[in-house]
Automatic annotation (TrEMBL):
This is Endoribonuclease L-PSP. Residues 1-22 form the signal peptide. Belongs to the RutC family. It comes from Gimesia alba. One of its GO terms (molecular function) is deaminase activity. GO terms for cellular component: cytosol. PANTHER family: 2-IMINOBUTANOATE/2-IMINOPROPANOATE DEAMINASE RIDA, PROTEIN HMF1-RELATED. SUPFAM superfamilies: YjgF-like (SSF55298). Keywords: Signal. Gene3D superfamilies: RutC-like.
């Protein structure tokens, strides 16, 4: 098995910048894309952000300009927010990048590569979607190592009054990844309310609490009603403690599906658990051989994998096998395997692939140990002639 020798410079860099406790490995970083194939983080406090738009913070409006200018401004805003939680762009481990049109992706990727340090290129996933503000061409949310060395007993939520952006600090410890849940209703607002209530029942089952929610991602339609959905979600939390939210438009008969990341109470054991990830089915829900309702990372280590698309167009079967074979290789090189996947997000641009995708997943997943997951049909996965991208979080096998 290959080792992560490509990452040594990045680890040294973090140590030199004062993060002596930080252990972050950037595997196969690329100066062309500004991304690493995967990023491995060990036992660190992680900052998760809300979806960052190209806002002129002082004016509160989307800045004029093309995708390149907006990419620069999004990164500037992200740097500003991360600075509030003892982090910065050199400590990024994951970027989710949302672009309004497929033809803009190369411009965004090129500018991202120019802006980020080669020693700290995060895992990246691109999705083409309408954004909450129609003037926005690009948006991002991020995961970054926080410089705080203190042991957090619970999540810390930061709401920036100037920009409206949000961040949550995930303590080193157990983390629940809750698959997308959806409750159908006549309106987007009502569906959002009922889905959040169901998610809170899942939280109760897990022994978790709403204040320890780290990030909420909602797949919804139509994006023109995003404000209504956001207001409903925010209404579940105190005024001064709104949690990071990301919105993606999907094509579905369901108005909304919502997934969550939640910090869970740590057990009292000081030894590393024998099982690094466990899978749960809350009471009243049906289990599935291709996804888990909840995956719990029992250790602080994370492996963030950049979005994987097929190497060649081909038929649906060829594309799906290509993606899973690449995933198997990447997580194997990062000292994990297909039985230690925690959270998957599957983006497809043609829903016709769904049938084959469901069947072929069973060839790669242990039916007792599939990752928590959400699948969303979106406008594009960011690359011409590709219709599937997998975004994955794994944990080490031991």
């Amino acid at each position: 098995m290959k080792t992560l020798t490509n990452s040594l410079l990045a680890v040294l860099f973090l140590t030199m910048t004062g993060l002596a406790a930080a252990e972050v490995s950037y595997y196969k970083p690329s100066t062309k894309t500004g991304a690493s194939l995967c990023v491995i983080v060990k036992d660190d406090v992680l900052a998760h952000t809300s979806q960052i738009l190209p806002l002129n913070i002082k004016g509160g409006q989307i800045a004029a300009g093309g995708a390149v200018d907006q990419t620069v401004l999004v990164l500037k805003n992200l740097k500003y927010l991360l600075g509030k939680v003892d982090s910065n762009l050199n400590q990024l481990v994951k970027l989710n990048i949302y672009v309004a049109r497929e033809d803009l992706v190369p411009e965004v990727r090129q500018r991202l590569a120019q802006e980020l340090e080669v020693t700290a290129q995060p895992a990246c996933t691109y999705v083409v979607t309408k954004l909450p503000d129609p003037k926005a061409l690009v948006a991002m949310d991020a995961v970054a190592v926080s410089g705080s060395n203190k042991k957090l007993a619970q999540a810390q939520i930061f709401n920036d009054d100037v920009s409206g952006f949000r961040a949550a600090l995930l303590p080193a410890g157990r983390t629940a990844y809750i698959s997308g849940q959806a409750v159908k209703a006549d309106t987007l607002a009502e569906s959002t309310k009922k889905t959040m209530e169901e998610l809170f029942q899942t939280l109760k089952y897990l022994g978790g609490s709403p204040e320890n929610i780290i990030q909420i991602k909602a797949f919804l339609t139509p994006m023109s009603e995003a404000t209504a959905a956001s207001q409903v979600i925010d209404g579940f939390f105190p005024y001064d403690s709104k949690h990071p939210v990301t919105l993606v438009e999907w094509y579905s008969s369901l108005p909304i599906e919502i997934e969550m990341i939640v910090a869970l109470p740590d057990d009292s054991s000081t030894t590393r658990p024998a099982e690094t990830v466990t899978y749960k089915t809350p009471t009243g829900m049906k289990s599935s051989p291709v996804f888990s309702r909840v995956a719990i990372a029992n250790v602080s280590d994370r492996i963030y994998v950049s979005g994987i698309t097929s190497k060649e167009p081909g038929d649906n079967s060829t594309r799906i096998h290509s993606v899973f074979n690449q995933l198997k290789q990447v997580v194997g090189e990062a000292h994990s395997d297909m039985e230690h996947l925690a959270k998957a997000t599957y983006y497809v641009s043609e829903n016709e692939i769904s049938g084959d995708f469901g069947k072929i997943r069973q060839e790669y997943y242990n039916p007792q140990r599939p990752p928590a997951a959400s699948k969303a049909t979106v406008k594009s996965v960011g690359i011409p002639n590709r219709i599937l991208v997998i975004d994955m979080i794994a944990v080490p096998a031991k």
